[in-house]
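Batch job 17 of 40 flagged for manual review because the log was empty.
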Amino acid sequence: MSILAGDFTYSARRIAKRLPVSLVIMITLALGIGANSAIFSIFNAVLLQKLPFPAHDELTLVKQIKRLQGDANASFSVKEVDELHHESHAFKSIAEYHTMVFTMVGRNELTRVAAGVVSSDFFNDILRIKPQLGRTFSASDDVIGAPAAVLLTHEFWQSKFGGSKSVVGTYLTMNDRQYQVVGVLPPFPQFPNANDLYMSVSSCPFRSSEFVINSREARMLSVVARMAPDETLEKANTDVDTVSHRIIQANPASYPSQDGYTMSVIPIAEELIREVRPTLYTLLGTALLVLLIACANASGLLLAQNVERQREFAVRSALGCSRWRLARLMLTEVVMLAIGAALFGLALAYIASKFLNVHVASITGLATQAHIDATVLGFTFGLAILAGLIAGALPAMGTRYISSVLRENSEKSTAASHKNRGRKGLVIVQLAVTFVLLMGAALLITTVRNLQRVDLGFSSKNVVVAEMDLNWSRYGTAEEQRNFAKTLESRLQQMAGVQSYAVAATYPLDLAAENNPADRADVVFDDRSSEERSGRINSLVRRVSAGYFSTLGIEIADGRVLLASDDENGAAVAVVNRQLAKQHWPNASPIGHELSLDGGATWLKIVGIVGDEKRFALSEPPRPQVYVPYVQHPSWGRLNILLKATNPSSYEQPIRAMVHELTMCRRSIE
């Protein structure tokens, strides 16, 4: 032990004596160690740690799948959730969940608030979360007609209310309704979505409406469940499959056979990490390669230092010091440098993890649990010691040649050939690792360049998009929604310098359309027999104004696009994209034919064909798409403003002020 202490003391003196070079080595290693620590902190929180909920392995998501929509999540209706409650035997408790966007009115300001609407079991029996302040929801809060109640998330409580404990019992005004704050939740990884607050099911105007409660087709809910302790995932899947078959057989009109409705059970842990796992493995693998390069660079610096120490080692050897003793002395110094680098690396990791968390948190809520804990500290210092051993391996191995140093000419300025072998080997290792990284970078650059060359089907140049959510308490009818859109367009027309503009429920690469069942439809056509209509196609439906196509530069392939005259008083019309036309009329034109988005109840005349725009991802192939006039098919959901101008960024504040003025003006009139 005394010998080892002596080695540490000697190494510390050498590090202090050669401080500039020592700092260079430490910084070199710190960059590699810090990158690995930052990524590992997220890797640990997301992939290695257990979910921070009691009996987390019992937590599951129940999904209803619609095969016709490519295994898309069809969500659940209230009736279906009730049937799962009463007919399923695999679960100890079941809770419903869906999200809404509200407009919270403050002191002359409007705040867009994301709200998770949950039944009382969600926090009490499923997640088993105790409130930080106040209480969670009770069974009485689920009863239709109960006072409107909300729970604030910890983050929203801190940012909007400054962490004031007096917030419990106060009221929030959202969409012209008062909601009482009954509690504040502690920090926790939110799923399936991140929200600002949570409200009881009876507080949601849609969930508590008679139509949603009684309609089997009003599918808007997700289902979170806790399996019974003696149940397995296989048994749970068998159970829900049985329930699903029974529901379908009892209600054939609501579940057409061609739609292919099924149910499945998925562990919540798997669902939370499914999308982020490949990203984290790739990041960690890349960081390890960077650390190898750092070790190689540090090893090169140490080899250069050893040139000065050759005669020191030779004298020590002549006095009886073994090669292992010399190697241990050198490795002790390198490990001390690596431990110092670990301290620098932890500081870098703390800063870098903040930026990484923001990116990963957009994929999984588990990223919010990432922090520098004992596991990350152990990983960091363990990695530092390993890095030190790797970096010091070649210099330590070079001590085997010290016996020949005394025989060398003292005036000889170049190293012996056998001493260059280690350096050459080190260069080869560096080149190999660098080549791997360069190939990865080249592939990434090539991928980015290829994506830039992808034909998007539209042009976003000089186009700005402003998103807003219509307040359904003020714009609950089609007439109110239609009039607001018209007013919005008239105000946009008056803005100086605007080249073109449009309002639309969705726009290209907007994921809101992918997740909203109202923006999808099973299209049937007038030239197909009733038997052939069973092969109907699922299509995205965009509700847009006339200026949509010119604003985004979408190609007009045939016929015409939508016009301002295609209003509520005009004929019902639609425009289809080239993919839909090619798929159903490969040898003819669809113009003049009719299609239906509601199973044949109403029909729309096809007046034009446009190019294929990318829907949700740059890599996806062309998919069928239908465009309809917004004023003929208004909705209460999100409404987007698309504006094209020479300097579109200068319109951000004018658009914000205009929307605020229209909303506040409507409020004062009422």
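Reviewer: the log was empty due to a logging misconfiguration, but the result itself is present. The longest strand covers residues 91-105. Unflagging and moving on to job 18.
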